[in-house]
Write a structure and sequence with these properties.
The complex is a heterodimer. Among the domains of chain A are: 67 residues, no CATH class; 61 residues, Cytochrome C biogenesis protein (Helicase, Ruva Protein, domain 3). In chain A, 65% of the residues lie in helices and 0% in strands. Chain A is built from eight helices and no strands. Chain B is an alpha+beta fold. Helices cover 62% and strands 11% of the residues of chain B. In chain B, helix 1 runs antiparallel to helix 2, helix 11 packs antiparallel against helix 12 and helix 13 packs antiparallel against helix 14. The C terminus of chain B is likely disordered. Classes of the chains: A mainly alpha, B alpha+beta. The interface between A and B is large, with 65 and 74 residues.
């Protein structure tokens, strides 16, 4: 588990650092002057060169931690939270105090020690207790519907809202004139306070 | 005449008088005859009185240990103290129904009395609708499952209440939730009356606003009380399990939250008329749906002790509500056009629209997850479960966006907001929160989601505190002292600043939820006396096992000391209790020690032991959950501020005279 997290993190760093277009000539011109912009771009250049070594280092670190210790109770619970205790009323294996849930936690621990993946372990329990044991419905097949319908409905509602703006709106955005974007002056703040005061006095 | 006979007679009489009240007030409205209206209203007060008598009779039967009554024998026993016996009133299903009906009749009386001189075009219809709901419940109480049903053979002792329910939480959580469900009837009644009478202006909204906030506040308090109870008593380590019954109670609250926000758009800008009616009708329909789910046992739930055979009646009632409301709704549709247009995307009204989109989105996702197992079983005959992982993944991001919006929305101006004011209000909070997100990502070593979630909480807090600061500064210029500026500010504009306080409460609750969802630590270990287990930064040393026997209960204690490696923080005794008549279902005495300054909850459960004195523990560290309960307190404070009666009734006359009246606030 921890291994995979570190892996993801390492890849992310690599991508963030690598994907930025970097002109290497900045590195060469570095000693000439130390403007903030130059410093930044040179740092970026360094970063992009260091990206893969860093990623590799993190990968190694990750793989060490993954095999160094036996599964923690957290890791057991994490899987247990996705499984429903078959003899309980809607409580997960991680949270149930029942005997069966205790045995199932022990099984998860054994299987983790044997190096089985989370998917394997979950499949094992599905084969035994049926699909009902899954608290986290699979994102494929029929149960993908449970995942798909809410985002689709919300997007549709959002689209309907957008269309109703188009229909009902007399004007579109906020930007009016360049002066409007100028920095706040003392005058603006004073005006705001005035309006607020007036509002408060009106009560 | 014995007490139960009095109760039965009162219920039957209440049923008859309630029907009279409906007919009289409806006729009075149709023929504009005030004596009929007044008679209908008096009949409603009569129903309240009779239901009070019936409830008193049931309570007295409980306290008198009258086990000739089936309900009393099922839910109480002689070894229960009088205070727990009182909670037996709603410990089973008929009592809950009676409590619901009784509190609804009290609320009806309050609504009718406080509006006796107002809204003459609406109130008779409100009366009729509320009494129709009461008639449904009275029908159940009189003809389907009476609380005063007798047993042929009187048992010497009752079965007693489920020991899980022997708790102080029983005084708060079920009555609050029942009252919350029940109180959504009032906005519904006003909405339906507006539709029936064709008075579709802002009148019904003024009339209902306070009541809507009251129902919303009660339901919110009920949910929080339920979370507190689950955490402190049920002992599974959490406070919210996305259980169908919890979801059912959350749904009307979500819709009501959308409503108390969008109501402001109609007040100010006369838009969203249709939408507001849809919301009040849905909130009520969902509260009946929730009751149906709880009572029917149609979905697998930890609350299964509340099941019974009256489910189908609720289903029928739900159908009547939906078909009736929709019918009249479409009949009035042509008159429900908004009177204004949206002028800018960066405006308060559009902010509210997004707020509504998100709240309804969360409600839809929750509803869908809740009923999906039924759909799966019907469509392909396979039983499946939809559990917490689904809701966390789907609702989590929606709630996050909603939190950010909670920081932005209140500062947008009506109609349009200039860049200038956007800049003035948001630049500083935005910088603060971006910096903290960056710092938190480093601190949490890559838990980006948690860092972003905390960052949005910081953003909202910064925006709200700036608002308080600006307001207080303005009050200072008006001559308030340092001490009085803030309270005066809040009391002069309760709706606005009360709302901010509620938003702050949501931030506190959010902090608790984020902390415990991302940073929970857990250890399960079997120890012999003297051994210790480690969980998070704490070390828990097991000292030994002991046992205590008191009438009806056998308790096993484990003595444990909690230390942070250097100092002993607490000496605690997690326990397990075995109750007479309920041996198969021992209850846990969970120990929760909150530590300073980390605000970690050390949550300790005794899960088993053996002859040799070895004990098995489940120890969890839940960071920041204590803030959730702080948030609950702040929530109550904010709601009270919003609801606090105005000193001078500013618009006592206006709403009757004119539909155009617009309140001057926010």
């Amino acid at each position: 588990m921890r291994y995979r997290l570190t892996l993801a993190f390492a890849l992310k760093i690599a991508i963030v650092l690598r994907l930025r277009p970097v002109e290497t000539q900045h590195v060469a011109s570095l000693p000439n002057g130390l403007s903030p912009r130059r410093l930044f771009s040179s740092l970026r250049a360094c970063g992009s060169q260091l990206a893969w070594p860093i990623a590799l280092f993190l990968l190694l670190l990750g793989s060490f931690t993954a095999y160094a210790d036996s599964p923690t109770d957290q890791e057991v619970s994490k899987i247990g939270r996705e499984l429903k205790c078959p003899v309980c009323q809607n409580i997960s294996v991680a949270d149930s105090a029942s005997e069966l849930a205790g045995q199932m936690r022990a099984t998860i621990k054994e299987k983790l020690e044997a190096g089985e993946s989370k998917q394997d372990i979950i499949r094992f329990f599905v084969d035994r207790y049926g699909e009902e044991v899954l608290l986290n419905p699979p994102k494929d097949g029929f149960t993908s519907l449970v995942w798909l319908v809410p985002p689709v409905l919300i997007s549709l509602m959002g689209a309907a809202l957008f269309l109703s703006f188009r229909r009902n709106t007399s004007l579109s955005t906020v930007a009016e004139s360049p002066e409007e974007e100028a920095d706040l002056s003392e005058e603006d703040i004073r005006k705001y306070d005035e309006v607020l005061n007036k509002e408060l006095l009106a009560k | 005449m014995a007490l139960p006979d009095v109760g039965n007679a009162a219920l039957l009489l209440a049923f008859v008088i309630a029907i009279y009240s409906i007919i009289s007030s409806a006729l009075g409205a149709a023929k504009v005859r005030s004596e009929l209206v007044i008679s209908g209203r008096n009949a409603a007060f009569g129903v309240t009185l009779l239901l009070t008598v019936a409830s008193g009779a049931l309570l007295a039967s409980f306290l008198a240990r009258d086990f000739s009554l089936k309900y009393v024998a099922e839910t109480s026993s002689r070894n229960m103290t009088w205070d727990i016996t009182v909670t037996s009133f709603w410990g089973g299903q008929v009592g809950s129904l009676l409590l619901w009906t009784w509190t609804l009749s009290l609320l009806t009386a309050a609504v009718l009395w406080s509006n006796r001189d107002k809204y003459p075009g609406l109130m008779p219809l409100v009366n009729a609708v509320l009494l129709t709901i009461q008639v449904f419940f009275l029908f159940l109480l009189v003809f389907v499952s009476s609380p005063f049903q007798r047993l042929a053979i009187v048992p010497p002792d009752g079965r007693g209440l489920n020991p899980l329910l022997w708790d102080a939480g029983m005084f708060i959580h079920p009555p609050l939730l029942l009252m919350g469900y029940m109180s959504f009837s009032v906005p519904f009644a006003f909405g339906i009356s507006a539709l029936v009478s064709g008075r579709l202006g802002n009148e019904w909204l003024y009339a209902v606003r306070r009541w809507a906030i009251l129902s919303w506040g009660i339901q919110g308090a009920g949910l929080l009380a339920g979370a507190w109870w689950a955490y402190h008593v049920l002992g599974w380590g959490g406070y919210w399990g996305w259980d169908p019954v919890e979801n059912a109670a959350l749904l009307p609250w979500l819709v009501a939250t959308a409503f108390i926000h969008s109501i402001m758009v109609q007040e100010r800008r006369k838009m969203l008329k249709v939408w507001n009616l849809v919301l009040v009708i849905s909130a009520f329909a969902l509260s009946i749906f929730g009751t149906f789910v709880v009572r029917s046992g149609i979905l697998s739930s930890v609350h299964s002790f509340a099941q019974s055979a009256i489910g189908p009646y609720f289903f029928g009632f739900l159908g009547v509500i939906l078909i009736g409301s929709l019918g009249i709704f479409f009949y009035r549709m042509p008159q429900l056009k908004g009177e204004n247009v949206y002028e800018s995307v960066a405006s308060r009204e559009v902010g509210f629209l997004f707020n509504n989109l998100l709240f309804i989105g969360i409600a839809l996702a929750t509803f869908w997850g809740m009923v999906f197992p039924l759909i799966s079983e019907m469509a392909r005959g396979v039983k499946i479960s939809v559990g917490p992982p689904f809701y966390q993944q789907v609702n989590g991001p929606l709630i996050l966006v909603l939190t950010v919006l909670m920081g932005i929305g209140p500062l947008l101006a009506w109609r349009r907001t200039s860049y200038k004011s956007l800049k003035m209000n948001f630049v500083r909070p935005l910088i603060v929160s971006l910096i903290s997100i960056a710092a938190l990502i480093l601190l949490f070593r890559g838990e980006v989601a948690a860092a972003v979630a905390y960052g949005s909480c910081i953003f909202v807090t910064a925006v709200i505190l700036m608002e308080f600061y600006r307001g207080a500064r303005a009050r200072r210029r008006l001559g308030d002292s340092l001490v009085s500026a803030l309270p005066n500010l809040v009391m002069k504009n309760r709706r606005r600043y009360g709302g901010y306080i509620v938003h702050l409460a949501i931030v506190f609750i959010g902090l608790g939820i984020i902390g415990s969802s991302f940073f929970q630590k857990e250890t399960i270990a079997t120890l012999s006396p003297g051994q210790a287990l480690t969980v998070g930064r704490y070390s828990l040393t097991y000292q030994g096992l002991s046992q205590a026997i008191s009438p009806g209960v056998e308790t096993v204690f484990a003595a444990v000391t909690i230390s942070d490696g250097r100092n002993i923080l607490a000496r605690v005794t997690p326990q397990r209790r075995f109750h007479e008549n309920w041996e198969q279902q021992p209850t846990t005495g969970v120990v929760i020690a909150t530590t300073w300054p980390w605000l970690d909850d050390v949550y300790l459960l005794l899960t088993g032991w053996d002859e040799a004195g070895n004990a098995t523990f489940r120890a969890i560290v839940n960071p920041m959950v204590a803030l959730l309960w702080v948030g609950a307190g702040v929530f109550l404070l904010g709601t009270t501020v919003v609801l606090w009666p105005e000193t001078a009734p500013r618009r006592a006359v206006a709403p009757i005279l004119s539909r155009e009246a617009v309140p001057s606030e926010i």
